[in-house]
Amino acid sequence: MKFRTLVEPPEPMRGLEVPPAVVEALGGGARPPVTITVNGHTWRSRVAIMRGRHLLGLSSANRTAAGVAVGDEVEVDLVLDTEPRVAVEPADLTAALDADPAARAAYDKLTSSQQREHVRAIESAKKPETRQRRIEKAIATLRG
Description:
InterPro entries: AF2212/PG0164-like_sf, DUF1905. This is Bacteriocin-protection, YdeI or OmpD-Associated. Pfam families: DUF1905, OmdA. This protein has about 140 residues and is α+β, with helices and mostly antiparallel strands. It has 2 domains: about 1-80, AF2212/PG0164-like (Elongation Factor Tu (Ef-tu), domain 3, Beta Barrel); about 90-144, no CATH class. The chain is built from 6 helices and 7 strands, in the order ββαββββαβαααα. The strands form 2 sheets. A 4-stranded antiparallel beta sheet has the order 1-7-3-4. It has a 3-stranded antiparallel beta sheet with strand order 2-6-5. It starts with a strand and ends with a helix.
């Protein structure tokens, strides 16, 4: 579905307002997972509801990649995102999880967002020792 909207200032959690009729036509509920395209730049997100308005967050990185600024009127192409949201486990995390059945079971019960947080913490390590410590910390946290 395509619609036009203004790029709103990013405080607090503003970005792109989605008309209620568009949200309803998507058929994914009040907060559907979506794929958003603005000026050829595409990203995945979820429609948020704030003060009765349906909104799409628009990070600074996505504004830059789409070549838009606060105050611009933009055309948004919004599609219901039915693809599963899965965090891609790095091999060393997979090996550590597979070696600890309790941690693996706990990890598998996490939402994809929670899994991505663990993956992001591990992948953002600059040194191998830091990466290993973060994997060990994740396993310990998951074990409880």
